[in-house]
Predict the structure.
Amino acid sequence: MKIGDANLHRRIALEGHRFTPKEALAAGLVDHIVPGDSAEAVLDKARELAESVDSLAKGGVWGLIKVDTTFRDSSYSAQLTSKSTGRSLSRRY
């Protein structure tokens, strides 16, 4: 997990702060708070979240990674400059 706020880093690492659920949600440490203390309530929320994103997994995880990162736009062309000749090179990805 990446935590960008330096004050939050300090509170966690140096002070050993124990966050309440509301504090953790406000700080971005958790995405959801499930009311109650039963495992069934947590599993119900997990199922709900899984159902909300299940359409993203139809192509498989690797397909999602490729589409989302490197192959976002197949017509994307980058202009590269050769250091030795100073010429502009065009590549299609």
Q: What stands out?
A: Residues 34 and 41 are 7 Å apart (CA to CA). The helical segments are 6-13, 21-27, 39-53, 61-68.
